[in-house]
Amino acid sequence: MKVLIATQKPFAAVAVEGIKKILTDAGHQVDTLEKYAEQADFIKAVAPYDALIIRSDKVDTELLEAAHNLKIVVRAGAGVDNVDLQAASERKVVVMNTPGQNSNAVAELVIAMMIFMSRNQFNPSTGTEVMGKKLGIHGFGNIGRLVCEKAKGLGMQVFADPHYTPEKVRALGGEPVSSTEELYKNCDFVALHMPAKPETIKSIGYELLMGMPKGACIINAARKEVIDEEGLAKAFEERQDLKYATDIAPDNYELLKEKFGNRVFATPKKMGAQTAEANINAGLAAARQIADFFATGNNKFQVNKW
Length: 306
Prior knowledge:
With 306 residues, this protein is α/β, with parallel strands linked by helices. Helix content is 38%, strand content 16%. Helix 1 (13-25) packs parallel to helix 12 and helix 5 packs across helix 6.
């Protein structure tokens, strides 16, 4: 089978070598398309390939129509909102992710951003410590649980959103709450770790933010779409104490930064998975999943259905 590694933001060289070794040892041909300038370049390249390994690269209807031989796409990472799952399902193309491979890198970034905001973005003014503060985790999956573990190591009290049973939350080291509103009302920090789905898009907005304690901070390492940006701006106008740090710059970031200064921070580009370890882990996992899929039909991490 022919496999294309298509990455505008390339894997580390050692990861590419590892991916190629896994797949060539399994009898597959592997090519790379790195740092391509336009989506059209990706579309033009896909026709001969049976499998794709991508990162944040866009797999939409137009690309799928051009990929005549495509059987599987593996997203090296957890989120798959850059892939049109319905269009892939209609064409019987399996879409997988690599859950857990980037989780530690994202969790460490969340802790770093939390401290960064507590210390006023390292400006020479008096900040606060995170020890003794309350952290709410909205989305208690792989990443959320690692954030919980690290935050408890810093002496924080950690609460998890009510979509998980109290028994499960306690078993994983968190404390349960009865509602999303309670999570935001009680916590000095809330870390977002939910996917962008119809029910979560623009779900974090004015009402939740206005209910937060004085000096509270939202940390977003999920997706920018889960934030109601107009609601956030309105809350920040009325609450001079709120803070927001994100790994995904909002569409109105320049306006927010201009109006609210150091109360708002966005990384220059999405940094959650930008570690050597995560880069390698996710790429190698993607290669193993493709090799196993073609050898045995294993579709354990398939995220689309038909």
